[in-house]
Structures are given as structure tokens and as C-alpha cells.
């Protein structure tokens, strides 16, 4: 019977594969045509929307570059960060409590500590990060390296730029982060960020001015590196450009990049593991121990072995959870 069930399962999968293959062969051209039409229509809609944005800013590259990037940082940061501040201070809604990574800590959050964190974040954003965007704009104007504005990037270019940005950012962040944990730098540069042993969302920017300058300037250099890449007919051709900034992603790429980077930072520091989002537990562990999980992902931590303590911690936590569950079942049965 077991063999028959296995054969039946394989037969069903084979039939599904045959049906899909038949649909692709018979209707493949139609599907491709429909997809191309959808891409064309969506491209037209996005171009129309982009033109309305250009008109809103008066086709002024200063407003588009400086204030466009600032809006793409500030709006998602304070809307999502504000939501988490509300949740942490009022411990509401109650159903979110079960997703806390370190339950019982910062429940509720200390108001004075929260106010101090907001002050530090605002200073870092408006005295360092945002002025650096103005400096970046002025340098790009001086060196004639302003990114494209009037035409949207192709999908291929956008995806390549985003991929390069994420890879370079991951590499840069890991090694800069490890350097900041060096004993000669930690106390002066990075220790303030670790005052939050159980981080909250907006504590991603709760740093010393030196650290914020290092991270913000590093992010600017990351998107500057893309001018090393020339996109032509979908191929990547390496070239060297003049000027202090080496990368020219399209403004749309910058908007999406700044938005995603700050939302990811909020997620990594929020202190909650919601099942519908990637877990930030590795970075929570970093704030607890300070000697592991230095990257935004665990790719380079795996390469250098700085994730072993975290995985051991996860294994102990899982074993304890299973033990408690088993004891609860036994108590109920008695």
C-alpha cells in the first residue's frame, strides 16, 4: 500500500508537469506576448507617474536629488519608527507582545530614555546625514555627474544597480562594523549604540556623531561606486570615471535604495520577530553579546565564523521551548 501511494504521488506530479509543459508549448507565445504587453503598459503608467513627480518638483534637480532623497528617508523612517515607538511605550496592541524577542525588557519603554533617543536620532539626521546629501549634490554638480532624471531606468538597469548596491553595502557594513568593535574604537565610536541591549526600531540611528558620519558617508560611497558600471544592451562594461563620486544610479534607484535601507534598519532593531517578516533575532543577539552577527545578513558572518554563537543560542532557545511545551502537555494530562 505504501508503495502504491508513493507511485500515485509521483504519477500525480508527473501529470501536473505534463500539463504545464503542454500549456507552455501551446500557449507559450501568447503568454510571452501578454507579459510584454503588461510590461509596456506598466512602464507607461510609471513614466506618467514619474513625470508628475518631476512637475511637482519643477524639474529642479536640487529638489529632486536633495529633498527627494530626504523625503524617501524621513517619511518611512518616522512613520514606521513612530508605529513601533507607540507599540513599545503603550504595550499595545497586546497580541504583539508574544512576538517580542526579549520579553519583559522595555515593556513598557522608559520615557526619558525614549526622548533622549529621539533627540540623538534627530541630530544625526538633520545635522549630519541630510547635510551630506547637500554636499553630495554640490559635488555631483561640480563634476557633472548628476544621475539621470528625466527618463526612468530600464528594469534591467534598476535590478543590476540594486543588486550591486546591496552586495557592496553588505561587504562594507560588515567590515566597518567589525572595526568599530575594536577595543581602541568601541568606547569612543560604537558603545553608545549598544546602550540598547534590547534595541527598539529607531535606535538604528542612536549612535555617536562619529559613527553616524562613518555609516552615512559609507552609504554615499556605496551608491557612488555604481558609476564604475556602464549599462549597454543589458551587458555590464567596467569603466573608470573622473570625479570624486564613482557611481551614478538613477534617482529612482536612489529613492528605492534609501527607503529599503532605512526600513531594513528599523526591522533589524525593532525587537519583534513577526512570522511574516525576516527575523531580526540575529541583530538582537548582536546587541546582547556584542561579539557576533556584524552584517546586515549572516553571509559574511558565516564566512568568518562570527555566527556560531548565535546559532548555538538559537539551538538552546529552541530546546528550552520544546522542553517547556512538553512539560505543559504533561501537566495538562495529569
TrEMBL record:
Q: Which GO terms describe its cellular component?
A: membrane
Q: Name one GO biological process term.
A: lipid biosynthetic process
Which keywords describe this protein according to UniProt? Membrane, Monooxygenase, Oxidoreductase, Transmembrane, Transmembrane helix
Q: Would the keyword ATP-binding turn up in this protein's UniProt record?
A: no
- Give the GO molecular function terms: iron ion binding; monooxygenase activity
Q: Which residues form the Fatty acid hydroxylase domain?
A: 163-306
This protein's record includes keyword Transmembrane: yes
In which compartments does the protein localize? Membrane
Q: A Pfam family for this UniProt protein? A: FA_hydroxylase
Give TM regions: 62-90, 120-138, 158-176
* PROSITE patterns cross-referenced by the UniProt entry: PROKAR_LIPOPROTEIN
Principal location listed in the UniProt entry: membrane
The UniProt entry, under PANTHER family, shows: STEROL DESATURASE
Name of the protein in question: Methylsterol monooxygenase 1
Source organism (scientific name)? Daphnia magna
Q: What is the lineage of its organism?
A: Eukaryota, Metazoa, Ecdysozoa, Arthropoda, Crustacea
Amino acid at each position: 500500500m505504501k508503495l502504491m501511494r508513493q507511485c500515485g504521488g509521483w504519477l500525480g506530479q508527473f501529470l501536473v508537469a505534463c500539463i504545464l509543459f503542454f500549456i507552455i508549448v501551446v500557449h507559450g507565445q501568447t503568454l510571452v506576448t501578454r507579459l510584454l504587453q503588461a510590461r509596456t503598459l506598466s512602464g507607461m503608467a510609471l513614466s506618467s507617474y514619474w513625470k508628475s513627480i518631476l512637475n511637482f518638483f519643477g524639474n529642479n534637480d536640487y529638489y529632486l536629488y536633495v529633498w527627494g532623497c530626504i523625503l524617501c528617508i524621513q517619511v518611512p523612517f518616522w512613520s514606521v519608527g513612530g508605529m513601533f515607538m507607540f507599540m513599545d511605550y503603550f504595550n499595545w496592541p497586546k497580541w504583539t507582545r508574544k512576538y517580542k524577542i526579549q520579553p519583559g525588557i522595555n515593556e513598557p519603554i522608559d520615557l526619558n530614555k525614549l526622548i533622549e533617543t529621539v533627540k540623538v536620532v534627530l541630530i544625526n539626521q538633520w545635522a549630519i546625514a541630510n547635510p551630506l546629501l547637500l554636499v553630495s549634490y554640490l559635488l555631483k554638480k561640480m563634476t557633472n555627474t548628476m544621475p539621470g532624471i528625466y527618463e526612468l531606468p530600464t528594469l534591467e538597469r534598476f535590478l543590476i544597480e540594486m543588486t550591486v548596491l546591496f552586495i557592496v553595502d553588505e561587504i562594507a557594513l560588515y567590515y566597518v562594523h567589525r572595526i568599530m568593535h575594536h577595543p581602541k574604537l568601541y568606547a569612543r565610536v560604537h558603545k553608545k549604540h549598544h546602550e540598547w541591549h534590547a534595541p527598539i526600531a529607531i535606535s538604528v540611528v542612536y549612535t555617536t556623531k562619529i559613527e553616524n558620519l562613518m555609516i552615512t558617508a559609507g552609504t554615499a560611497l556605496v551608491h557612488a561606486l555604481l558609476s564604475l558600471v556602464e549599462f549597454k544592451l543589458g551587458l555590464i562594461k567596467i569603466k573608470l570615471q573622473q570625479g570624486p563620486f564613482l557611481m551614478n544610479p538613477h534617482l529612482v534607484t536612489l529613492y528605492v535604495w534609501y527607503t529599503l535601507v532605512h526600513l531594513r534598519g528599523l526591522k533589524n532593531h525593532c525587537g519583534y520577530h513577526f512570522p511574516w517578516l525576516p527575523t531580526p533575532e540575529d541583530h538582537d543577539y548582536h546587541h546582547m553579546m556584542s561579539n557576533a552577527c556584524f552584517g546586515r545578513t549572516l553571509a559574511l558572518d558565516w564566512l568568518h565564523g562570527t555566527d556560531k554563537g548565535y546559532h548555538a543560542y538559537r539551538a538552546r532557545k529552541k530546546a528550552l521551548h520544546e522542553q517547556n511545551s512538553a512539560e505543559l502537555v504533561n501537566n495538562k494530562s495529569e
